[in-house]
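ok here's Plastid-encoded RNA polymerase subunit alpha, seq below lol
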Amino acid sequence: MQLNFKKDYVFRVESERSQNGELYARLHIGLFPKNKALTFSTALRRSLLSDIPALVISDIIVFGVEHEFETLPGIQEPFFDIIENLKKIVIAHISEGLEFFLSNPGEIKGFINFKGPGEIKAHDIILPSDFFCVTPDQHIATVSHNGELIIGLKIILMDPNRVNQINKYGITQLDNFKLSEVFLRKKKTTKKNQKVLNLNCVPNPVKKVTFFIQQLEKKQNLEFIDLEIVTDGSITPKQALRYSILKLTKFFSHYIF
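and the structure came out like this:
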């Protein structure tokens, strides 16, 4: 294999998108002095699998439900199954750089307002124009001819390292998560029959990371990393790689003295 590392330290060899929305990329990183690539790639793999933030549905507002084990009239599935289906939805931002993942976008609100009969899918979620569902055909619920499902969604960019803090100390600020007065009047409902449920979602945008250490054929004292990354589609493998390298660089910079 003839490699050219003169221009790019990291470059993509191949990439593809699967039918379930997952993104795959194979990248080459190098060059490294002999026996140094393994040290770097081990730390990089750990960071990719545990440090990448992702958009998750953290909380929902439901009408006419007191707890997650209830059933709604006109809805085929128990509400617990609807919650599990909502947890499977992957939401992404249209940006291609790291600016969004390094920012603090705050709360993003989405809505489901569906009147039966029919099947509710992820593409029925109303989102801001710069957000989209990676798997638009993801099933949510089945509504009969006399059924109606109204759900408000709170979406946040969650850091995996802060999941326990958010769930323990209530940093999600549920008091600020309210549907608009106009929406409430339109549906002839009140805030009294709203119920806020926390979904306890854990972000896991990077599904798989594998690497191999390769040596150059003509220079045995130099090596490079053959890296494969699979994400859920909410972030590209290259974005995840850049974020992890930035995270590791920032982490180790604290120990410079």
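fwiw Residues 165-177, 180-186 have pLDDT under 50 and may be disordered. kinda neat tbh
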